[in-house]
Amino acid sequence: MPIVDSPLFKPPLLLRNYHLQTGYAGLFRPIPEVDYKRERVNTPDGDFLDLDWSKMGARKLVMVLHGLEGSADRPYVRGIVKIMNESGWDGVGLNFRGCSGEANLMSRAYHSGETDDLDWVLSRIIASGAYDEIAIVGFSLGGNVALKYVGERGEKVHPMIKKAVGISVPVDLESSCIEISKLENRIYQHRFLVTLKEKTLAKKHLLPKHIDLEAVAKSRDFPQFDGAATAPIHGFSSADDYYSRSSSLQFLSDIKIPTLLLNAVDDSFLSKTCYPYELAKQSPFLFLETPKHGGHVGFVYFKGNGFYWSELRVKAFLSEDS
Question: Which class in CATH covers the domain with range 13-172+247-319?
């Protein structure tokens, strides 16, 4: 019954509101200092991925996956890399296709259920022989990718991959799209859609002819954008098909390594189905932790020597013997 009795998280009094938690972390957090070295790797299909490494000469590696329209340069990614560096781990941030500051070379990009690139990168790292242990930490969209990945593989997950963590994860994509379309969240949805549409339309010369560019440009919510762009570009029949096949919720019961799902109760992006209490009760591997406060990729904390509470929690989880 791995439903975690969450350690008491007390957000700063003036940042107790979930919008303030979400907004402060995204807009005002000082960027943690990490000495990244970028590696560009060419994918088998003729594209590329950029990996941002912070190496300490360790035999343990944490791979961090960013959220929608993020990158490995986001403070929440750097925060995990930095705290694990200080704990004696190497760190690497995987920039999804088109998210490293340079457009990728193909019509396809990334999406909430894209695990093939993650698998290819992990296989490459494992084959290098540089590490004995790997953990995967994902935020929001990246958290869905991480949880789907370890769930898809179940007992066949590589034995070097020891643990996974998902933070602020919309494990049920369709219902979470409904939540983010509500009035209180439209400012976030608008910001995401602006860059998603810009990136898509900038690659119009690469897109299949059946993509309706006018529908992409006029999209006003995620179902419209995903129906016009994400689904047809990536081989789904519709937005509903994309959400159904890509949601990690259906894979959680198949996870066979210790995995922490950390979703704040006040996360306005998440639906009720993103708190899978019954699944966690039945799984010896899925640890569900739902602190009262934290917002979406927030968990702002001023008593952690520069680290946010979620980073301290990840460090503790990855350091525990299982």
Answer: alpha beta
pLDDT in tens, 93-132: 999 999 999 999 999 999 999 999 999 999 999 999 999 9
Residues of the chain with CATH 3.40.50.1820: 13-172+247-319
The residue annotated as part of the active site, out of 140, 168, 247, 271, is 140
At a CB cut-off of 8 Å and minimum separation 6, what does 58 contact?
88, 89, 90, 131
Q: Is 111 a known active-site residue?
A: no
List the structure tokens of 276.
Answer: 């899978």
pLDDT band at residue 322, thresholds of 50, 70 and 90?
A: low
SS3 7: coil
Rounded to a whole number of angstroms, the CA Rg of the chain reads: 19
In single-letter form, the type of residue at position 203 comes to K
The reported pTM is: 0.97
> How far apart are the C-alpha atoms of 25 and 76, rounded to whole Å?
8
Catalytic residue among 266, 267, 283, 310: 267
Residue 293 is among the residues annotated as catalytic for this protein: no
